[in-house]
Design brief:
mainly alpha; three-stranded antiparallel β-sheet; 17 helices
Length: 388
Amino acid sequence: MMSFFKDRNCYLRDYNLPLLEKIKRFNYGYLFFITLVVFMGIGILYSVAQGNFDPWASKQLVRFFVSLIFLYLIALTNLRLWMKYAYVVYGIALLLLIAVSIVGHVGMGAQRWLDLGLFHLQPSEIMKIALVLALARYFHGASLEEIRSWRFMIPPALMIIIPVAFILEQPDLGTALMLVFAGGALFFLVGVQIWKFCTAFILTLISLPIIWSCLHTYQQRRVLTFLNPESDPLGAGYHIAQSKITLGSGGLWGKGFMQGTQSRLNFIPEKQTDFIFTVLAEEFGLFGAFALFFLYAVIIAYGFVIALKCNNFFGKLLAMGLTINFSLYVFMNMSMVMGLMPVVGIPLPLMSYGGTAMMTLCISFGLIECVHINQEMVIGRRGSIDDE
């Protein structure tokens, strides 16, 4: 199979754009749609708090503006800097994951956070960015002959497997699946043959009994509930049953802002995080849901266009990988709340309440903006990081 990207080995003079030129090149349309979704989320958080900015909406607003500063600063950096330190970022993220398994903060039965005093940090969110950075760095300048070599593919495979193992131990099945799917998507884009994906899929099917035995009891219940939601409607199936009821009760136009009965009567579990989409659908109906779909589609389209327009392979892979990450966020959360896949604890990006998620998403958008601003830069083959 030929790689989706053809121009992987080209060269061009390096250049360092003036700050003013970088600011002019900033894609403000991309940022506008991101901000629009965030404020939709803040509105829903205000609603689920019974018309109060506390405890969620006010904090989310502050987090977004702080994250926006990071987005803007990262966008104005030199793309070569991220390529140069991609492995360093990955190593730091991996060390943080190891630290979680040793001294991590336990919350809601899971050990996923590091208590840093002022806030709790979730290193698995950082790994979503770090993995894409490391894979983009590794595959930059690689020939199709190298990619077809199984020896060449061992390091990137380990880059995925090692953090996935630590994340599954937390346990966090949703994030682990996101890393696997995002990594697999990048493997496909750089030209890994289809038969290797088929082989991996067959091996996964053969290993299902082992994988099942390694799942925690609550994870097994979620899978069984997905296969038969009516088996335990007041227990393991309660979340998804209430989610479906809420989605259907909104009808075409919804019940109106702050008029959702399911959310106001607290039938919806985790309504400020994982199931926030159901609140939106109840209050604004199918129209509101499709409006959100449209905004997400525009943001995703912006990311793909930026990736395709970039003249260097590292930037292409970086923007594409981060956009795929965002797409997986959206797809997995909406599929989960609609009962199309088991509940795996994935928040709805830019909408759900959460500090680390908001920060890492804005860092991702900042990197994509950085690719856009530096799209005319072409970096040499793997290992040629410094200016030629």
